[in-house]
Write a structure and sequence with these properties.
2 domains, alpha+beta, Rossmann fold, globular, 19 helices, Glutamine Phosphoribosylpyrophosphate, subunit 1, domain 1, 487 residues, 7-stranded antiparallel sheet
Amino acid sequence: MTDYHRDDEWILSERPDHMEEECGVFGVWADGEDVARLTYFGLHALQHRGQESAGIAVADGYTLTVVKNLGLVPQVFSESDLDSLQGHLAVGHTRYSTTGASKKWENAQPMISAIGPNTIALAHNGNLVNTASLREELQALGVRFRSTTDSEVMVRLVDHFTQQHNSIRAGIRDAMRLMRGAYSVVMMSEQALYAFRDPHGVRPLCIGTLPDDRGWVIASESCALDIVGAEFVRNVNPGELVRVKDGVFESEQAVPSGKRSLCVFEFVYFARPDTVLSGRSVYESRREQGMALAATAPVEADLVIGVPDSGIPGAVGYAQASGIPYGEGLVKNRYVGRTFISPTQSIRQQGIRLKLNPMRHIIEGKRLVVVDDSIVRGNTSKKLVQLLRDAGAAEIHMRLTSPAVVWPCFYGIDTDTQDQLIAATHTVEQIRDFIGADSVAFLDLEDLVASTGRPVGDLCTACFDGEYPIGIPDSLRRGKLVLEQAE
């Protein structure tokens, strides 16, 4: 079911009310290590970035083997799968679809392509904005596609230029010169591990080393380095291409860097709170967002609660700054994910209770400040408010640790057309009335930027202010910016 307007009524969607996840990528070169299991646990740490499919490719210098399927990381890989993946280098991917249908095996990554006597496996986080034109040019050259993803366009492009130059690195360089949009990529051949990042650095990508110089690890977030015991070294720079072969780390600036534009929503929702982004603790950023909200949107209340998990650090900060006690009013069922088992109609009608359950003895009769990361479509917030009302809350004051989401994303976040973003068509008061809260307040953009520790010029804030750092083709803009067209 899709959100749409009808006679001033906002029709509920069954889709989540958050910016939906991107993807997680992981790569490792470690001779003598069980790289398949290192990658498995790295992907497990990145599971929050995508829950629709997962895959691992491993190479031993001569052959490249891949296992991938639909589902969560523990659903996709068995002990026997990991035992079969023998080698000293690997790449892995956990996917949330932004381009291409989600529930198709062909769209699961890593993407595989044969280049002469070699094979490459590529895992991508982000979204290209010129996929259609690149795809058409490759098809005109006789390239055939098996999937509908921009990631396959990317791997075919690398394939095409690699054959021209007889060099994988040269093939990647030429592909990067043509690709537009957001991409953080780990890739491998039978002999080497590669990583490269778009010139604006929209999606995160970091480098680590295993203890005692046992190998190199590259991952979307530092929390994935932590889980395998790797030490953070630095981020992959915008426009940079790195290679690890025979244990030797090499780097080059493949394309000139552009305006740095790290997605600010990493600090709000996407990244795990134990991740460090550009030297900044994500948890501390979110706590400061809550503290800023307490200053700009105070309210008389009895208890501050956070919506698990991303709203909790902000709730802690709000409570600390306001002096209102913090409490755990909502319990999250951490074992409810995207599975292949559909709930019955009676269970489906419970809606948000599948994931969250209120603690009546804590919230009954209380005036609540409820801290969450965002309101995108409004449907989940409406259900949440009703859930808390049913549990006896006397008042509900929603506080969001991000500004109102008014513009769609083109760089790898799954948002609808602009008219389906509730803040694009409703005032704050109308949003309050729709979700049934006593009050609603959003964080100011200036306070959000301040919480990241980075200057505003280093961040992509397009979903809040419409300032897109990478040009969007007209055909793509027309598909999402429907309100802009109407004006």
